[in-house]
Specification:
Elements (H helix, E strand, L loop, with lengths): L1 E6 L3 E4 L3 E3 L2 E4 L9 E4 L2 E5 L15 H17 L7 E10 L1 H15 L5 E5 L2 E14 L9 H4 L5 E6 L4 E7 L2 E10 L3 H16 L5 H8 L8 H24 L8 E5 L1 H5 L1 H6 L5 E4 L5 H15 L3
Parallel strand pairs: 1-7, 7-9, 10-13, 13-14
Antiparallel strand pairs: 1-2, 2-3, 4-6, 5-6, 5-8, 8-9, 10-11, 11-12
Helix pairs in contact: 4-6
Amino acid sequence: MIISIDHGNKNVKSMHKTFTSGLISSTVPFSISGDCLYYNGMYYALTDERIPYMRDKTVDDRFFVLSLFAIAYELQNTGKYVSGSTVNIDLAIGLPPGNFGKQYAAFQKYFMRNEYIRFEFNNIKYRIFINSANAYPQGYAAVMPIYQKIKEYPRSIVIDIGGFTLDYLQLKNGKADMSVCDSLELGVITLYNDIKSAVNSSEDLLIDECDIDSVIQNKPSVFEKRIRDTIEQKSKEFTDKIINSLRERHIDLKSTHAIFVGGGSILLEKYIRTSDRIASPEIIKNINANAAGYEILLKKQIESGR
């Protein structure tokens, strides 16, 4: 079975599930309600408090455990898994294009435990064996579902706005140009921190990320207009900062087809679409787009026999 997982700094995404990249652990079962996973002598539960940014996600087992949650959700989604049975899994995963060459081998190895992995999820026993772990560049994977359209453009740029990083990659007639790619620390977490600081300084008010999301998405809010205006203005300035940072790297969004992917792009859609400095913005609204692309790329790899 192929299972694809996008290990974001803010969220972990599989084909059918998205959850915050955060977990808590205990040597005894949790009394709180919610999904619980037992692995290697420890109990784990998901939390909305994400793990602090990790450039290298292989330094400990936390992202491996988060992957077990994603695998359990995907097996659960099939409706066919029988408790205690064994599933052989080919993992499709990804890394930012700017770090891909340096990290992909270690990231693939991180998942290859070369043994049966046993864990319990919500009192159901799972037994899996990871046959392979196959890494692909983020962003590039996200455009795979619309590849036939994208390859018609002589030049395009994929901009993946994630939790802590913004990753970009140039495509020429749909082919990745790895000489024009990088990972910048310009994800939406930096926007959240900027807004929190500004509102706390001016209003002596503590706000949460979900409060910021609600204002940006024009959802009901208890905040006064001046606070909503601050959030809106900071978000517009952040979008302009992204454009300026790309321009400094000789990427002009007025002369190339810009494809925005990732949760940050979805959140900032209205600022992206109204900017007069982006000629042809295309926003992929599926937050699971990278995971979907990883699966497509792995299937192509298997079909080609490589």
